[in-house]
Amino acid sequence: MHLYLHIPFCKQACHYCDFHFSTNLSRKDAMVEAIRTEIRLQAAYLPSSELQTVYFGGGTPSLLTEAELARLFDTIHAQFAVAPDAEITLEANPDDLTPAKLTMLRRYVNRLSIGIQTFSEEALRWMNRAHNATEAEQCVRLAREAGFDNLSIDLIYGIPLFSVWQYDLDRALSLNVPHLSAYALTIEPDTAFGRWTQKGKLPALDEGLAADHFEQLTQTLAGAGYEHYEISNFARPGHYARHNTAYWQQRPYLGVGPSAHSYNGHSRQFNVANNALYLRALEAGELPAETEVLTPADRVNEYLLTGLRTQWGCSLTELSQLAGGDFEQQQASALGELYRQQWLQNTDGFLRLTPAGKLFADRVAATLFVD
């Protein structure tokens, strides 16, 4: 089983980010207490009480103090049995990772996911990141000195105006981290970049540039010995992100905190994406969540959407079981077209994206959705 904790606070708003967060940290302590309450209320949500992974996401979980982390873990251990070999990940920003902070974090977590995004000082400023280029590289060295061997870094590609992608890949490879996640820059309406685009201050993103960067990414990392096990994720052998893999493989997980999602095999639960409403509900002992019971079609479509993004693909046998009929026969026309486009292949009863198809993963999945 798997536990996700959403820590909805950031020092400042990155210009591209539309995740749920607040830059007002005044109620951080109250939020920690509310999340502890939610963990207690939700303890029976999962089919088993043993946790294989714990993941602190956000927001910026590296803003948590030791006292706040300790209280959260007290509650986690009181309600669940954390496996001895559990993967415990915390997302961190480079500017938070001082030697003292890393020493503290090492007492609680065994994996860091560091939001570097780019090593370019100019591009960092343009995106309104809180850290600088020196901290982007220095934090990895400091993390290793503090005893963290299981490290991941995030990068963003498709950045316009700056020719930094090859430089970013070179710097990332020089750090020799065991895991790397890379995401295409997107422009979301309710962000600074979205508003700049609407006002004509920022040109529309070039999809061709992003496609070129993705090809450069996959070829460069394959040449460096990384396994491309999910569209946006690359790892040295034995260093796949176990928590995120659980999502992609449809395993049950509990998400706590504002905007967090949960899945128990037959339904999904969605927490309110509003800090004040979340706090108010938990202070009253109520769960601030809505539940959606998944239909057979929902389960087929979610399996396609997540499974096709991975190297394992989607089992035709499992798709047929979920669909209540022969999926290959039901979707023969759509499958045939995807095979002809060379975006999809059937290898030993598993549907997998081709290298060309990885550029259109969501479109391929949507083509196969059932009603």
Overview in brief:
This protein is α/β, with parallel strands linked by helices and 371 residues long.
> For the record, what is the CATH homologous superfamily label of the largest domain?
Aldolase class I
CATH architecture descriptor text of the largest domain = Alpha-Beta Barrel
* Cα-atom radius of gyration: 21 Å
Give the tally of β-strands. Answer: 15
CATH fold-level topology of the largest domain? TIM Barrel
Shape: globular
GO molecular function, one term: metal ion binding
Family: Belongs to the anaerobic coproporphyrinogen-III oxidase family. HemW subfamily.
Domain Radical SAM core: 1-227
Function: Probably acts as a heme chaperone, transferring heme to an unknown acceptor. Binds one molecule of heme per monomer, possibly covalently. Binds 1 [4Fe-4S] cluster. The cluster is coordinated with 3 cysteines and an exchangeable S-adenosyl-L-methionine.
Give structural notes:
With 371 residues, the chain is of the alpha/beta class. The chain has two domains: 2-248, Alpha-Beta Barrel (TIM Barrel); 296-368, Arc Repressor Mutant, subunit A, CATH 1.10.10.920. 40% of the residues lie in helices and 22% in strands. The protein has 15 helices and 15 strands. It has helices at residues 28-41, 66-79, 99-106, 121-127, 133-145, 165-175, 192-198, 207-223, 242-248, 275-283, 296-307, 316-323, 327-330, 332-340, 361-368; strands at 2-7, 50-58, 81-92, 111-117, 150-157, 179-184, 227-230, 233-235, 253-256, 261-263, 267-271, 289-293, 314-315, 344-347, 350-353. The strands form three sheets. It has a nine-stranded mixed sheet, with helices on both faces. Strands 10-11-12 form a three-stranded antiparallel sheet, with no helix packed on it. Strands 13-15-14 form a three-stranded antiparallel sheet. The chain is globular. The two termini are 30 Å apart. Residues 1-227 form the Radical SAM core domain.
